[in-house]
# Entry
Amino acid sequence: MATRHSVPGRFKKAKPLENVRVVRTTDSPNCTGACGWLATVVDDVIVDLKPAADYPCQEYNPRGCLRGMSMTHLIYGPDRVKTPLIREGARGEGKWRKASWDEALDFIASKMISIRDTSGPESMLLFNQVVGTGYVQKGAQVRMAALLGMSFATAYDFNGDISMGFTQTVGIDCVECETKSWAHCKTVILWSSNVFQTRIPDAKFLTTHAKQKNNCQIVCIDPRCSQTAKGADLWLPIHPGTDGALALSMCQVILEKRLVDWKFLQKFTDCACLIREDDGKRLRASDVGMGTDAEFMVWDEAADKLFTLPMDSLKLSDDVRFAFNGVREVEVKGTKVKVRPVFELLEDTIMRPEYSPENVASVTDIPAETIRKLATDFATQRPSSIVIGMGVNHRHDGDLAIRSILLFATLVGAHGKPGESVSIYSGQHHFRLDVSAWWFPEGRRPNNVPMHYFVLGHPTETINPKIKYPKNGFKALFVSHANPLVTEFSGPLKAAIDALDLFVVTDFSMSPTCEYADVVLPAPTFWEKVDLVGTSCHPYLQIQQEVVPPQYDSRTEFWIARELLKRVDPTLNKYFDLTEDDVIELMLKTGGKEVAEITLDQLKAGPVRLNVHDPECGLDEQFHEDKLFPPRAYPFPDGAQRELLKTGRMEFYKEEDSYQKFGETIPLYRGSFRTLNSEEKKLPLTIVTPHSKWRVHSTHSNNPFLLNVNRKPVVEINPRDAIARGINDGDPVAIFNANGEYQLWALVTEAIKPGVLCVDHAWWDRYLISGKYHSVHTHQEIKPTHETYYLPAVYAPGQHWKDVRVDVRKVK
Amino acid sequence: MAKYAMLIDLTRCIGCDACTLACKQENGTPADVFFARVLNAEVGKFPNVKRVYIPVLCNHCDDAPCLKGCPNKAIFKRPDGIVLIDQDRCKGAGACVSACPYGNVYLNTEDTWYLNEDEAYERDHVKPRLTQNKARKCTYCAHRVDEGLDPACVVACPTTARIFGDLDDSESTISRYVVDQEQETGRKPFHLVPQAGTKPTGIYLGTMAAQQSSTLGNSAPIPADLTQEGGDK
# Structure
């Protein structure tokens, strides 16, 4: 509730304001925090934003952060796109013509028709960010793409946020407990996760609850003394890229100290599955005449015979006792074949001398006794949780590192209870309900193509056959809710855009990506349009209200999609013959069990908790209802992920030919920066790019309110590295490598490990001295094992931004 | 009568600056004026370095030097302890700015703003609320307190690190919190710069995080590959 008084004199009673409305809404930025707000509106101007603090579960109150409440300065900010703009000069030249909506839409539609008729509709690509928030508006764009037969690139994998280590292990690309569950922890490992900056509304569950009430031990693994390290008991400045070695060493400690939770492994993992020595595949029931090739064999020591894992449930009889060790011989179609349980293969790797804490100490820079203590504390001071950050994942072997971390936590059974989980809060594309009825009319889906192939300009040799690369290549790109020319490696992306006939960007701020567009369409902010909002951070479904009408000459994405469709193919008009409220009701009705019986009226009254466990610990259906892994990934049908995780258990062994060929059947550490060539490896420094509290990715980069407290881009550098280069605090410097160079200012600080630089993520170009943020990062590279299957944003190629080395020098 | 005070629990505080921005929005302050802000410091040398966040604001001191220093008698203390600068009487002399040992009083000869001049939001709803060339500072959101609301920085704090209330009432949340925390976590309340002797009403509780580090302390080179060829076969 806002009060609108002046700073006082002797307190004359202020006149009550007229024309005041207070609206309960939620925002839907790409942090996906989905915080509830009370907006005070005077004369149709938003004058104040305060946390709504109305979540039925009191611990969540209040939610909100400085970015959310600073939105006034973007809504009314100087960079607001106020009318449609059509490019007049060359791309990026900055010459624009203000256009009416009719003119802009007619222009785009005529190009779309010509591309459709000459190259095919799949030559037009839609790329909108973080579809897991804002089901109505972003869904309208996908619905249009589906109806027209356009291609659609999911952002999540292109961002590199897809956590393939999770997909490989549990069949879904990320797992999150609701943050309330952190409150129960006695031990938390924040593995490169900086929640004090990136999960501000949720951080209280660590500070106010876990720390203050349980005296929880909080450990930060990060090359930088991050803001979160402020609240940690122990900070481990690890060598970047060596997280997997640390995790495997911690596994060795668990095995050595006999802290393994065998019952957990027996029920929930593939650790007892028998692996054939002849072909490296799992022993199937069909191999031994005991069932189908979709059933898998273990050895039951209690009965001393082969046992077929049930494929209808994780439930096991109390009588079975699986063998985790021992070579056995079975007869497969008349031939004797040696088989060994997965666990023994894991043990062979984990117990190698190179994973001893003493050896890993020199690899990671973390002392052996610390590794031992950390592993032991995690196993014994329960409940224990791990939160993984993107610094681990944005690497070529990030999947191996995450598989190793999951293995560590799984060996001690740290899953599925309040305060026990391994979470990675990157699942921002995850849907809390089945949106298919709105997004995919009559089952029509757009042609999914990962953005990587657009940027590469061609399919790879190893591309998954399910991906239909357009036969005539790409001719048009529609970007929305995204700023890829800042947040992604921009050189090759720009080149790919240069080859297009049409590049349309929809945004509310004139971002560097807009500046390169052919047509810019002004969108409303999330304070000016209706939507249905869910998040993986907390289990509340909320309505985003039209607090004020779309400002200036902006129009909702829903309206734009309808108008474009009308012009490109009027026969499809009927698919948009409904209101946004109708859409929400449709999704609630068809959304599945999580939203069963939730109504629009309830949502209009306030946040409604989904039909999920309380607290959600992650993978609840598996750990509490004995359902096979993986949990369903909306909006794909049940069973779509089965081929990725055939056993229905947490898989620590990947039998597929590609994994065998590339030597990654089990988690292991292969050395950091191994994909770099010898010249690149010679560069002395590495760089990390954490999200900062001042921005949500690149949003708010230009917020004048926030720029007042965060004035210019800096690179954090340790004095040892600065002195060696003659760099003083505040000096202009260039960060460079063979990929590119950009210039900004030095911040000489003891809070970063020598050998590591840190620039916070996604500064817009104009704030740098020169160059483009992200220009030094890794080019588009695809790990072949990531092409073995394809399920958009669930099993798809990730990104390896952080596998780079750089140097820095002082500039004039 | 009440004696209002602000407690900030540094165990809960994550240094997020939500208070800074909530205050700016509530009070409509111009650029570079921060009634509430967060000091961000690092202490020590790598690897034994700690980050420290200290949210600061006017301490509404019982023995306020700004009040004593004002040549125009524009500063007064309400019976409930809130120290205010009467904007009508203030002549912008600036004595209070010099007198405050905490640096929490602001005086601009010319205010600068954030948005384009034709934006109704700032033009009609923000700028009219403050006058340049007058000393200004945190009021504990007296206008909200008088309506029974907590200050803006308190309601906006996502970690509930700020507790505002009446220290004269032993049953108030703030009074009980001080007593309970001393019992439960052994933490005693303290003031910033106590040697200034101004009897501040801003109270702090310390951080419980041990903030230790463990490392061999080497520069991050390219670590030797553990498995030269890599692969699991």
